[in-house]
Amino acid sequence: MSDTASEPRRILLIVSGGIAAYKVLETIRHLRRRGVAVRCVLTAGGAQFVTPLSLHALSEDKVYQDLFSLTDESEMGHIELSRQADLVVVAPASADILAKMTAGLCDDLATTLLLATDKPVLVAPAMNVRMWEHAATQENLATLIRRGISVIGPEEGPMACGEYGYGRLVEPDRLAAAILRRLGHDTDGTDTKQSVLAGRSALVTSGPTHEPIDPVRYIANRSSGRQGHAIAEALAALGARVTLVSGPTRLPDPAGVTTVHIESAEEMLSACRSALPVDVAVCAAAVADWKVAARTGEKIKKEEGAAPPTLALAENPDILKTLGQPGPGRPQLVVGFAAETGDVVARGTAKRARKGCDWILGNDVSEGTGTFGGAENSVHFITEAGAEAWPTGSKRAVADELARRIAAHLGAAGERGAAE
Ligand code: CTP
C-alpha cells in the first residue's frame, strides 16, 4: 500500500455475476472522486449485467475480461495485474466466485488473479437469501475469513428475485467507504494513520445467548446483534483493534474485526476474559439472565401421560458487571445498554450504578417500538453527568455516535491503556 494519503491509491475491482453489479458503477464514481484509480476485471457472469463500456467510461481505464488475451498478456501479464493494486475488491461477489476462491480454482481471469495476488482482498457478497444462508456458502465464507479475506455485507432487504432477507449488495456509498478505509483513507478524506482510536483496543459483546436445556433445545431471545455488530464496525473504522464476542446471529462477521462466536453466557464471559486487557468494553449483547440449572446430556423425552417437565433456572454470570468491577484489569471505559420497557432514564441510571459501568445507553424495547431485533434505535446516553436523549436513528448511526464519544473520551484521558 502507498505510504501517504496524498499518493493515488489503486484498486483492482472484480465484477462478478449478479443483478447488483449495476451498483458498482456508482461505487466507481465515489472512488474516482476521491482520486482512487480503479482497474476493472469483468467476469463472463458480470458481463451479463454491466457492459465493459460502462466500466471503462467510469473507471477511465482498460477493462480486462480474458485470461488468454494475447494483447493483454503482452501489455501486462495477469500476475502483474493481480499485484499492481493496493487492494483487490470483488463486488458483487457471487456464491460461485466465493466457492471458487475457497477451492483455489482458477478457470478464468478473475479467479486466476485472486489466486495469484499478494494483496489484501475485500469481498462484497450479493446473492439470493437461500444461496447466502446455504451451509456451503457460509462454510466457504468462514474459510475465506480465516485466510484473512475481509467481507462487507450483504445487507438485509427485499431482493430482485422477490424474496426478502440477507443477500443484497451493500449500498455504493458504504462499499466505497469500506474500500477507502482499507486503502488508508478515512471517509472524510483524512488518513487513518491519524485515526482517533489507532493503538486502542476494544471488546464488544453482541447478539443473544443460547442457554442449552438438553442437546437439542435451548432458551433464547429476539436480539438480532445488529447494534453490537455496528458498534464493533464503527470502532474498527476509527482505527481500534476490536474483538467482537457474538452469540448466534444471522449477521456476517464485520470486516476488520476479530469475531469470536459463542453460544451461552458462560462461554461469552470466558471469551471476554480472554480478550482482556482492552481500553474499552461495550456490552451490547442480550445475555440470558438465567440458564437451565441442570442441563441434561440426553434429550428430554415426552413420556405418554406424564406431566411436562419443569425447568429449574439458575442465574447466569453478569458480564457487564464483571468487566466493570474495579481492579487493575478493568478497561478504562466500560459501556452497557439498558433494555427497558418504560421509565428508561430512571431505570437506566439505576442500572448504571448497579452494574458499575461508566456509561449506559438506555433504550425502550417495549412492544411496538421495533427496537429489539429491528434496524432503528432510540437511546438515552446516561453518564455520571446525567442523561442525554439522542435522536432516533439507525443502529449504525447510534454506533457511529458512540464510537465518536468513546474516541473523544479516550483521547481526553490521554494515556494509552494496558492494551497496547
Ligand atoms: N448484561 C451482561 N450479562 C448479563 C446480563 C446483562 O453483560 N448476564 C449486560 C447487557 O449486555 C447490557 C446490560 O448488562 O449491557 C443490561 O442488560 P439488561 O438486559 O438491560 O439488564 P439486566 O441486567 O438483564 O437486568 P433486567 O433484565 O432486570 O433489566
From TrEMBL:
GO terms for molecular function: FMN binding; metal ion binding; phosphopantothenate--cysteine ligase activity; phosphopantothenoylcysteine decarboxylase activity. One of its GO terms (biological process) is coenzyme A biosynthetic process. Its EC number is 4.1.1.36, 6.3.2.5. It catalyses: N-[(R)-4-phosphopantothenoyl]-L-cysteine + H(+) = (R)-4'-phosphopantetheine + CO2; (R)-4'-phosphopantothenate + L-cysteine + CTP = N-[(R)-4-phosphopantothenoyl]-L-cysteine + CMP + diphosphate + H(+). CTP binds at D289, K299, P317, D318, I319, L320, F337, K351, K355. Residues 10-179 form the Flavoprotein domain. One of its GO terms (cellular component) is phosphopantothenoylcysteine decarboxylase complex. Its cofactor is FMN; Mg(2+). The active site is at C161. Residues 202-420 are annotated as: Phosphopantothenate--cysteine ligase. The keyword Magnesium applies. It comes from the Bacteria. Pathway: Cofactor biosynthesis; coenzyme A biosynthesis; CoA from (R)-pantothenate: step 3/5; Cofactor biosynthesis; coenzyme A biosynthesis; CoA from (R)-pantothenate: step 2/5. Gene3D superfamilies: CoaB-like, Flavin prenyltransferase-like. Residues 197-408 form the DNA/pantothenate metabolism flavoprotein C-terminal domain. Binds 1 FMN per subunit. Keywords: Decarboxylase, Flavoprotein, FMN, Ligase, Lyase, Magnesium, Metal-binding, Multifunctional enzyme. The keyword Repressor does not apply. HAMAP family: CoaBC. Catalyzes two steps in the biosynthesis of coenzyme A. In the first step cysteine is conjugated to 4'-phosphopantothenate to form 4-phosphopantothenoylcysteine, in the latter compound is decarboxylated to form 4'-phosphopantotheine. Catalyzes two sequential steps in the biosynthesis of coenzyme A. In the first step cysteine is conjugated to 4'-phosphopantothenate to form 4-phosphopantothenoylcysteine. In the second step the latter compound is decarboxylated to form 4'-phosphopantotheine. In the C-terminal section; belongs to the PPC synthetase family. In the N-terminal section; belongs to the HFCD (homo-oligomeric flavin containing Cys decarboxylase) superfamily. This is Coenzyme A biosynthesis bifunctional protein CoaBC. It comes from Marivibrio halodurans. The gene is coaBC.
